[in-house]
Each structure stands twice: as structure tokens, then as C-alpha cells.
Amino acid sequence: MLRERYSTFLGRSHTYGSVYAYSTDIDRTKMSLQLVLAGIYPPTLTDSGYLELSPIPAYYEPLIVDNILNTENCPRYKKEYKKIKATPAIVSKVSKNKKLFEYIEENTGLNMTVDPILSTYGLYIFLTTQESLNITLPEWATEEVLTKMKPIVELEYQIRSYNTLMKRLNGGHLVQEFIKNMNATRNQTSPKIYVYSGHEINVAAFAKAHNFVEPKIPSFGSAIIVEKLRDSKGKYFVQVRFIIMNN
Question: Is Cytoplasm among this UniProt entry's keywords (predicted)?
Fold first, then answer.
């Protein structure tokens, strides 16, 4: 899709430095990034019959120091997150879903007393990922149960960006990174495209930092595209696109 949309802008062949690629320090995001990069500049068959590859370097930081795609290590973020979870409004929602949490604990063995919202979120991501791979779900995980879990998952995403401070701590570094890239002086060695491979929480954090309503629950393979464009009068503007994958 990226190759098709930006083929003229990117050119047919890769030149060193034309792509900046960054991933979290997790195998699955690194592999996803390599697949995307291979799609941007796919292997070509030479006239001699050889397959010509375009390897592109990718960068990552250890999770403990990655403040772009792993904001959960921030002490202030952790403090605010716990404080919001303890507010009467959130505690009330937990109480209203007590039967659902008991049902999940009974069928999975998960401890649903410490943080039932986060536990439901993790389980929902696991189940919907399996569902997207056509793996049969356990009998207890019916469509009705998944439907009941969905608002809890949406609530977890809301809590992570609950107020202005949380939006800044959760998605601010990523937004700042995008702004830095767009403001960088363009020259012959500047990247044409910046590719970041992260997680569903990063997609949600970016969206909520801009007060976008969607996506409420980013699905497998979802992405954000931020384009810096110039109109016919030479004026620059920014356009944001979402790729929402259906499981």
C-alpha cells in the first residue's frame, strides 16, 4: 500500500539514508518493520536473472530507555495512571462489571482483583489476535463475552490518555518526534520517509493526543500516516491518515 501510494515520491530504488526505520526492542515489531521495509522497496530481478535486495538499517533502543514508543516506564505517567484507576468514576465502572470479571477469572485463572480493567484488556487483545489468525477460541470466549469485554478495553485506552497531562506523557513524545522530522532541514541525504513499528497502544496514544475519536481499539496491523504536503501556492500543511485493519 505504501509502495503504491508513494512510488513516485520514493523512487524505484533505495538509496542509503532515504528511509529512517525505528522499532521497539521486541521481536514481533522488528519483524513487522522488516516486512514493511521490504514492501516499500521490494526485491527486483536484474536482467542477469539475479534477485537484487535493498537492505535498510533499522534502529531501536532498549525498552527501559525508549521514551518514544514505550512511555509506560515514565515514573510520572505510572503515578498518574494509578491515581486515575483509583478515582470514584473508574472504581464504579469496575463494580458494575464485577460479574464479568468473576466469569473471566473462573474460566482463565487470571487474578481479576488487582487490576481487572488491565487484565481484561490484555486478554481481549490475546483473544482477538487469535481470532484474526483463524484460531478457534475456547468455548467460554463467546461473541457475547467479547462484546461485554469491549467497553472495558475502550476504557483502558481512555485511562491511558485520560486528561491533558496523560495525553502529553503517553503520546507527546511520539508527536514531538513527528514534528521534529517534519521541521528537519531537507537536503539530499535527508530521509524521504520515517517508519516506526510499535504497538496498538502507540496508535491509540497518538490518536488521543490529537483528540481523535477513532480508533477506539486499534486492530492488528493498524497504522498512522502523517504527510507533510505543499499546496499549489507553496504553503505547507499536514495531513493525517489512518489505516484501520479489520480482523
Answer: no
